[in-house]
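Review session, final week

We close the course with one last complete record, chosen because it touches almost every idea we covered. It is Acetoacetate decarboxylase, a protein from Leptolyngbya sp. NK1-12 with 210 residues. Go through it on your own first, then we will talk.
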Amino acid sequence: MSYPPAPWHLKGFSLQTLHLLDIERVRPLIPSELNIVSVLPGKTVGGVYIASYGAGSTMPYNELIVVSGLLHWQGKVGAWISHIYVDHPDSVVGGREIWGLPKQLAQFTWNVGKMPSVQVNHSGQTLCTLSSSWQLPGWPQPVSGPVFSLQHTQLLQFNGQGTLQLQLAGVDLTIDSTSPLAELNLGRPWLGFYSNSLDLIVNPPIPMHK
């Protein structure tokens, strides 16, 4: 086994966006047995999260997560990750074999400063670019994020929890029309956030029984 066992401890910084997504558009990306939560008529919540994990982490790597919907099933609520890219091969294998996440390798180019930005490329193609033009002062926020995933035919749920130094930010998202992410039609972010300090634990998954 080339990857460490769960839980994984992740420390670093991130840029994030929240979006309202068309339920009809994201439905094919989500297992049919999971119910999509409608927050407005025909709309669910999704978003883009790009983070860089460094010193103090289980392993150092960069990560792009695309959440394509908020779901509920058997009284439980969680997000669905339809696209996920990292730049460490052990993270790819661990993500697939522990949590059932469809991780792929990608390249991350960060411009870290007062106005951070990042571009993510996969197989010579630009997946997306996130850039922040402003941030408001923030403070540490406890977070807990339940996620559904699928490993072969087994539905799983796991939880990420910890603390984010969360700052409301102006975040622009650019997605090329040929990017695999274009199918979500994310559009302009509803909200944007920057966290210059995150400290998260990603717990082992729990099988969900039908």
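Two points worth writing down before the exam:
The CA atoms of residues 173 and 188 lie 7 Å apart.
The helical segments are 23-26, 89-99.
Good luck, everyone.
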